[in-house]
Write a structure and sequence with these properties.
The chain is mostly helical. The protein has one domain. It is built from 4 helices and no strands. Helix 1 packs across helix 4 and helix 2 runs parallel beside helix 4. The longest helix has about 35 residues. It holds the Pfam family DUF7168.
Length: about 140
């Protein structure tokens, strides 16, 4: 759903983030906590939930920053982007509602493994989101 170039970009970002999350989780799983317990399924689940939640936060922050930048840039030229952006947002919301009428949201901040949650958020903070950023092996 969406314009082909946007879908391609999202697929590339998703794949990149998946690879980064798996690498970071493998590194974190190989360590042990303060009580020398090995990382468990709950660690991995918490890690991935935290990674996803933090990536979502970073993407939202980035989108708002870029939207604000574009609005200010075009305002200097006398162009008001806000009505255009609002119209586009309504179109997207209507298309999503039509395609997925039962769609809801779920909070991802439930964690039963604090070490996994912390490691996932930390890994998401260092994940590369932009093209041209080097991804560490």
């Amino acid at each position: 759903m969406g314009q082909a170039e946007h879908v391609d970009a999202v697929e590339m970002l998703f794949t990149s983030l998946l690879v980064q999350a798996m690498r970071a989780m493998r590194r974190a799983v190989s360590t042990r906590d303060a009580r020398a317990r090995s990382r468990t399924r709950s660690f991995r689940s918490s890690f991935l939930s935290a990674f996803a939640a933090r990536i979502g936060e970073r993407l939202n922050e980035s989108a708002h920053t870029e939207q604000d930048r574009a609005v200010h840039e075009y305002a200097r030229d006398g162009t008001d982007l806000l009505p255009v952006l609002a119209s586009k947002e309504r179109q997207v919301e209507e298309a999503v509602t039509e395609a997925f009428p039962e769609l809801g949201s779920v909070r991802l901040n439930h964690s039963n493994n604090v070490w996994g949650w912390r490691a996932g958020r930390a890994s998401a903070d260092s994940a590369a989101l932009h093209t041209g950023q080097r991804i560490e092996p």
